[in-house]
Here is the input.
Amino acid sequence: MLFTDPVFLLLLLPLACVLFYSVTPRFGASAGFGLLLVISLLFYWAWGTFYLILLVLSFTANFISACALLRLPDQRRAARRAALTLGLLYNFGTLIWFKYRFFFMSLGGGESSFALVDVAIPIGISFYTFQQAIFLVDAYHRDAAVVAYLGDMRTAWGKLRGYVHHAFFVAFFPHLVIGPIVYLREFQPQIETANFGRVKRANLEVGIALIVLGMFKKVVLADNLGPVADKMFASVDLHLHVPMAVAWVGTLAYYAQLYFDFSGYADMALGCARVLGIRFPMNFYSPLQAVGIVDFYRRWHITLTRVIARFMYTPLSVIGTRFAVSHRWPKWPARAISLWLPLLLNFVVIALWHGARYTFLLFGIIHGVWYVVETEIRAGKAFKAWRKKSSERLRGFLGRTIFLLLMAICFGLFRSTSVVGFGRLLGDLFSPDLALPHSLAGDAGKVLLGLAIVWLLPNAMEFLERYRPGIATYDNKDYALPRLRFRWRPDWAWSVVLIAMLLGALYSIARQPPFLYMGF
Amino acid sequence: MAGRNVHRRIRPLLLLVAAVLVLGWAATGLFLLVDPLALYPWGARARLADRQYSMDGTPYMVDVVTKNPDIDTLFVGGSTGHQFTDRMMEATWPRSGRAFNLSHTSPRPADRELIQDKILEFSHARRVIEEIDWRYQLPRAVERRVDVTGNDFPLFLYDNTMWNDVRGVGLKTVRLSANVAAGGPVWISDWSDRHWQQQDRRDYVRFLSPQSLATLKAEIARHRHDVDTPSTLDCGRLDIISQDLVPFARALSHRGIELDVIFPVYSPALFYEWIDRDDRLRVNGKSFLDDHLVMRRCVVEALDGIPRVRIFGFDDVAGLATNVANFRDPGHLYNAGAARYMLESIARGTHRLTRANIGQELDKMHASIVNYQVVDGPPWQASK
Here is the structure.
């Protein structure tokens, strides 16, 4: 089921709220979790029984592994490592089987085989796999949040309660399908508060505001930009030449569409959790306003980036640094092994997480190289000297312009169905064909409007800043125009604005393409 | 003090959202219980209005029409097929029951497939007329995936998941439900064909303006050298024909239902104009004409010989396709007399395309298009 599905909005979500707030104060948090777990499984079941079974198997296997990790004493290190390895093998084994098997099967079979890749990927598997892998690593380290959250599991009742808690954490519908990937240490303290499970009107209001903003982004903005991008990319797929202006409008349309689509989902996810009194980590913070790729990755799909950085970049960088120091390597080779290589691998993994395509692989390599180059430039003396002399506004303008052009092209690669197709797109983007077809004005107008919203207005997190809509991972700068830094209050004026946006979104909801990130 | 307390009690956003929720529930309940679109077993047998449904309404009428045992003749097509009104069809086959035109704007393979499935599952029709337009020359997968034309066909109403039907709840369906609940027909004023007719008339006048015709002539002159670009298509790649059309034709034939397939009449100017129309880029640009001719040949080769299936083309009617005065734009015929003539020809069995004559007919069509000079004479009349 989609968040934009009227059945979800009109029935399942209100039902979840009413039941959760009726049951939890009387019977405790575990009963509330059990109830939300059932609702979450119903929510997920809409995609098919097989996927549901897979999800249940997944959280059951991980629960067993977590129990073993917590129960085995530290002295039995080998057994604990085996339990962790088995759990991780199950997680990544199923992920690889469902997501990458065709890639391996088709190696040597040419790019056409990749059409098969999208066929049978269980919805949300990339997200719940990562979520549980982190959970197991935390359990291995006896993280206090994991121990407290699963509780005393010495009795059968305790085990059942622990199982329900774990299953709920994994399957909780707001983050099950497209994230955000939540750390238990962000989640667990919230359920310990005295007011957890009790109706708090501010939670309802902020949650509803986030749901409306997200739905508007998805249904009104992203879904109107989608056809502009689809039209251009379909032409490229059909080996048709498109004029330069059409190619740029189509590429920028996809760039804005992907942002509105994915961040719209993230806002709705935060909103759905918040109406139930739970605060999730922010996943987006105006990434398209970034002044460079380093800044971008502090703002785009934040919860995935931080997981890969924590479990991949940081350990690799530490190993590389230790190796370089112990072998007394000179400066540049040492930087290469301690910084560049881990960064490159980090981005390749992030890219391949989206799926097994050569376009994603190339996207990851380009981002890795770009990140390394930008890091080195920013650390260089020349840049630091220029930074002292130049104004922040000039730096911001230049950074944003360069970033926009490069990132839009990168997302053109991300959207292309093949590397060869991307080559054709590049040819069109820089072709000397300056024709301006009839319908370009309308399409360009949509894209400009979308980008103006992105660049000039505050993002949902800034807009709702007074009510702490999400947990911040990074301390990001606010780039919105000072005059347009609106801040929301639950008064009549803003309520009417939100209801107008809600009605606008509901009016368009019949045309309901899926969220783009469901494909990953 | 009392004012502050009141302010604290009233939470405007929660109040407004609650109102939207209650309205949403009421509208959904009404729509599901009344079932004006005959989607469920409990829906009352819906009565058709005695009017011409516009293409805004026909996408919602699939179940209503196919489950109606009084409907004897069905027309399935796109915007080019909408000119064949129900009354025209009933006049052409007077001894049959009611006719209904299910044509709608820019049908995709998924829409057509659904209508075909519904016809096979429910319909009592004894004759189906299916129009084969230029979309049949596109790859099925691309046509399925890309929704360039802003197609609003409500596929979600017709899938097997009742939950999805809630997406159909809106102002129009609520009005429709209220109308049917009050004993009225399945009809709302938004579905009247009148505004489409007015729009068509305006398009016709605009199309025939000197400025528009001058642009068209310039376009034709500009593409005279590349309109005849050879196609790279072959019948094997035209999978909408092999996967949708042929199985449908065979299934109808097996049940003893007559299927008449017609190709719409396009102005030759269309094949010049669409070479670089950016919103039609899904069509293969310069080879659009040749692709289209390949598609027509493949349709005839695939269908001719199946019992009770006939194929018709009217591009050879003198003064019809070549005269811009018969069109409201190069892709849409605007001549009720011609539409009537085409239906009568189908009834008589003239203008048939077969394996034996398709090569010759396509050669004539090709020559007529590549040598085309704009003709703007008096509109075509059957008495000619």
About this structure: The longest strand of chain B covers residues 71-76. Residues 144-150 of chain B have pLDDT under 50 and may be disordered. Strands of chain B lie at 71-76, 98-101, 127-131, 258-262, 309-312, 327-329, 332-333. The CA atoms of residues 38 and 63 of chain B lie 6 Å apart.
